[in-house]
Amino acid sequence: MDKKSQQTPQPPSFNKSLFGADNNPSNIMPAKLTAESNLKFRCHPGVSCFTNCCGNINIVLTPYDILRIRRPLNLSAEEFLLRFTTPVYLEKTDLPGVKIHLDENGRCPFVTEEGCTIYPYRPTTCRYYPVGMSYFHAAGNEGTAAEEFYFLVKEPYCKGHEEPKEQTIREWRVDQGIDESDEMNREWMEIVMRRKSFGLQATLSEPAQKMFFLASTDLDKFRDFVFNSSFLETYDVDAETLTKIKTDDIALMKFSCKYLAASIFGTKDLLIKPEKVKARVEQNKNNQGDVEKQAMETYEALRRDHDLLKKKIEVQKETDKKS
Ligand code: SF4
Ligand code: SF4
Q1: Domain end: 157, 181, 198, which one?
Q2: Element (H or E) spanning 214, and its range?
Q3: Distance between CA atoms of 87 and 104, rounded to whole angstroms?
């Protein structure tokens, strides 16, 4: 980022969360686009607005975003969440997630004058911009296919629209690595969008919300929950899946979505063992089933660990300053 762009006023608050832009509808072009629609846009370090869009924004992270960013940073999920994120409710839902925690100047912690320091691993929403994707699933039609379409977000400060490069949205997606992100995000996004279609009058129980948060943000803890609780006594999980999710984070992430879909919407993605069903009904009558209790305990343990880790990081920062 050169001096000129540093002096450029910061863009207005813009919600890039979950590939939409509901907070600033005046900048959404009123046209439904398809993958074959033309997109005249190019973003590169030579634009006068370079990195201006990396501030005053809400960047909600998907489970895959978290996994992809923290690996090269060599951070545990806990440490990554503590250092770089803030809890947030996913837009128009009762589902808790995280967004990138901006610095004291309202800037993304990963941006420098040279650009994005995590560019190959940047979040899905950063890849999509300035294209938004709507994914509508009308309430009451949860079993039907959702309608997907694209739209263009045109912020006045963004000079990429004045660049001569033209491509289709399909080509743009390939260029930005969006297909891979979408594939990895698909099951989780379906849960979020399906929940969104229920409207805000639907409220998940607190333990269920905490479990959604845990499974969506910290796969290490979710793995611990699966293998070191009564989870496997309760759910029918085949041996092949079990072997995979022990070590494969992507397989675990996909599995966590099956679990969330089954526990939130009652889908058949993950079945409770027959002998447990009866006991489960009894437990549910008391509104605090075995799994939910376990979720609560896991969450409380997570909170305690977070507090400890926070202290450790503060001590480390002080040590770094002195050295
Ligand atoms: S992650 Fe990278 S591209 Fe996204 S806002 Fe931060 S610096 Fe910009
Ligand atoms: S062209 Fe648009 S997307 Fe690229 S840096 Fe400028 S404001 Fe951001």
Answers
A1: 198
A2: helix 206-217
A3: 17
Instruction: Indicate whether residue 73 lines ligand 1 (CB < 6 A).
Output: no
Residue 179's domain spans which residues?
3-198
116 pocket-lining for ligand 1 (C-beta < 6 Å): yes
Instruction: Give yes or no: residues 57 and 192 share one domain.
Output: yes
Number of domains into which the chain is organized: 2
Ligand approaching nearest to the C-alpha of 165: 2
CA-closest candidate to residue 64, choices 199, 219, 282, 210: 219
42 and 112 part of one domain: yes
Lowest mean pLDDT among 15-24, 130-139, 179-188, 249-258: 15-24
**What is the reported pLDDT for 147?**
65
Q: Is 98 exposed, middle or buried (0-12, 13-18, 19+ CB in 10 A)?
A: buried
Q: Is the CB of 111 under 6 A from ligand 1?
A: yes
CB 57 within 8 A of CB 15: yes
Residues 171 and 289 in one domain: no
Residue 254 and residue 271 in one domain: yes
Residues 15 and 164 in one domain: yes
Query: In the structure, which protein residues have their CB atom closer than 6 angstroms to any atom of ligand 2?
Result: 43, 47, 49-53, 129, 157-160
Exposure of 158 by Cβ count < 10 A (0-12 exposed, 13-18 middle, 19+ buried)? buried
Tell which of 170, 198, 226 closes a domain: 198
Residue 51 has pLDDT above 80, yes or no: yes
Give the predicted TM-score (pTM) of the model.
0.80
Q: Is the pLDDT of residue 45 over 60?
A: yes
> pLDDT value at position 131?
93
One domain, residues 116 and 165: yes
pLDDT digits (tens, 9 = 90+) for 233-242: 989 999 999 9
Cβ neighbours, 10 Å, residue 295:
26
CA-nearest residue, atom 3 of ligand 2: 43
Which residues touch 318 (CB under 8 Å, ≥6 apart)?
A: none
From the CA of 50, which ligand is nearest?
A: 2
